Fold this protein.
Amino acid sequence: GENVEQHPSTLSVQEGDSAVIKCTYSDSASNYFPWYKQELGKGPQLIIDIRSNVGEKKDQRIAVTLNKTAKHFSLHITETQPEDSAVYFCAASSSSNSGYALNFGKGTSLLVT
Amino acid sequence: DTAVSQTPKYLVTQMGNDKSIKCEQNLGHDTMYWYKQDSKKFLKIMFSYNNKELIINETVPNRFSPKSPDKAHLNLHINSLELGDSAVYFCASSQDESPLHFGNGTRLTVT
């Protein structure tokens, strides 16, 4: 099955700096790559996603890049703010008769001070 | 106007008991899921139902039995609870190729 590796596990940045989180996946059939933000006591919330036919996507301060050949994708947050502090998860899935069950990375705890 | 709601939010119980967690979504999605998040924050899928039909059943003890009375509900029943079942359980839903929407979780503590 799909194996998603995520690095780093913790990341501390100063307000205004950029943060980058990287993920790799193993299943070449994976074609959907979302990123989720989880705040304390809440469920994961989608912040951005990318599909395999696109190399980069941007939404204000957040961007995601995908390299299908290398099987890795990254989340970039620019001009970080204290409210960006949370746990971030990458995920990968492939469309199939099984729906879009996501395989998650182990999460990155981001602290913006 | 909560999209995916689960109850209860907290559940504390003793080993050996049987408990249920309920989940409802008002998004009109066809597919619902249960995920387990352990103490290290790792999220792992347990079950997936599409239109009340089980389509994913990962390696989960058969003490866990999901039940979907209709496509808007997916409940999780757990028999003979064990200490290792302590975790946060998340319900989620999706439609076709739309992203997963998660509930806010149920923190289960088994003592």
